[in-house]
Structure formats: C-alpha cells, structure tokens
Write a structure and sequence with these properties.
Blueprint: E1 7-14, E2 19-23, E3 29-33, E4 45-56, E5 59-70, E6 83-89, H1 105-113, E7 116-121, H2 137-146, H3 150-163, H4 168-178, H5 183-198, H6 214-221
Length: 222
C-alpha cells in the first residue's frame, strides 16, 4: 500500500490505540492511528492526509491527519436490511393514552391513516447463537456496563460494528454508553444507525414498522 494523496476511509471500529477501517469503495482493510480517535464513531467517512505507512504482521497500517469527517451511508455499499411482512397493523388497536383523556393531535394523524401493511426490519446481530441464550452480545455488553466495565462493553459493541456495520443495536448502545458525558457524540452514534435503517425504507410508502415506537412515529406525523 502506497498512499500519498488525501484518501477517504470508512471507520468500522475503534479502540484506544487505533481504528479499523476500509478504503472507501474498496475491501482493503487498514489500521488507522491518530490522536483524534476519541471523536470518531463507526460508519463515518474520514478524509486523511497520510503521514506514515507501514506493515505489521501482514496488516496495512496508516497514521495521518484527519482533515474532514462526514456521514454518507449511501456511499458505504451496504446491503439494505430486509423488511419482513408481519400482517395488517390497525392503529385503532394501539394505546394512545389513558382512557377518557383526549388523543393528541400527532396521534390523530396516524389513526386517520387507517389499517395498513406492517413490516419487521431484519435484525443483524453477529456473534449471537439463537440456541444459546447466554450468547447474546448485547445482553453481555449491558451486563458489563452495569458492572462498571465500560472497556469490555465498548469492545463487544465495536466488534459487532466491525463484523457488520448494519448491527443497529450496536450503534444504539454505543450512543447510550456515552450519552451522559457526551450527548453530541451519542447523537452521532444514533444517526449512523438511523441512516443505515433508512436504506431499507424506499418504497415503504404509508406502510409501517410498528416496533419503531410512538416517539419516532410522532416525528413522522409532524
């Protein structure tokens, strides 16, 4: 690898020392080192001015200055998550508030659309064994977080992103982990997951993903 001009790389995962990345538009992996790693989130595209390049144990390594960062999920070449049909969803069957209380305007708009087809989005969860309930990596990361082992929590979630950036749970829980200390960074984690999910929504029209929840539904109705 001989990189001279500014290049663009996609962040797959981050540790304290380096970020595992891919050259944009390529399957070539590279380990990137920079004092700016703490500000990065998986899924972002970095423009880098290379300063040093080397090989270690067959792995291409790169150090340089980050000149810009951007989020453009459509440029990552990801396969959209599948939408599986789950029957007809009737808003009249949903909970919109306590009995006897007026229904809020945002909910009235959703109810007025009437019944429509519902879908469930494909769940990508690497390292999970459906036959072993103790193997769920999100559960394990939460257990570590609750025990105060944040390094272990981050390691699991970053590994999920490294295996498949379409693991929406990983982006969400990475955001949750930093929300109190750095809400702006948490929002960037959430946005990456949201934008990846949006790749699957072309052509959805007025059909629904009921599991999205009333908060997001309220935003769409506004």
């Amino acid at each position: 690898m001989n990189l001279v001009f500014p290049i663009e790389i996609v962040v797959a995962s981050i540790t304290k020392k380096e970020a595992r990345c891919q050259l944009l538009g390529s399957e070539r992996d590279v380990l990137f080192r920079s004092p700016q790693l703490k500000r990065l989130v998986p899924g972002e595209i970095l423009k880098v001015a290379p300063r040093k390049q080397w090989k270690y144990a067959g792995q291409s390594c790169l150090a340089g200055e980050i000149t810009t960062t951007r989020l453009d999920v459509s440029a990552l070449g990801l396969t959209p998550l599948r939408l599986e049909p789950r029957g007809i969803w009737n808003p009249m069957d949903e909970y919109w508030g306590e009995e006897g209380e007026p229904v809020e305007d945002w909910a009235k708009k959703i109810i007025a659309w009437g019944p429509r087809q519902s879908y469930e989005m494909e769940k990508v969860l690497p390292m999970d064994d459906p036959d072993d309930p103790d193997s769920d990596p999100i559960v394990r990361s939460n257990d570590l977080k609750n025990a105060g082992h944040f390094t272990g929590t981050s390691r699991i979630l970053m590994e999920l992103c490294d295996v498949d950036l379409r693991c929406l749970d990983a982006h969400s829980h990475l955001g949750n982990m930093v929300f109190e200390d750095d809400p702006a960074k948490a929002l960037r984690h959430y946005e990456v997951g949201m934008r990846i999910g949006e790749l699957s929504l072309d052509g959805l029209g007025d059909d629904v993903l009921p599991w999205v929840g009333s908060t997001i539904a309220r935003g769409f109705a506004a």
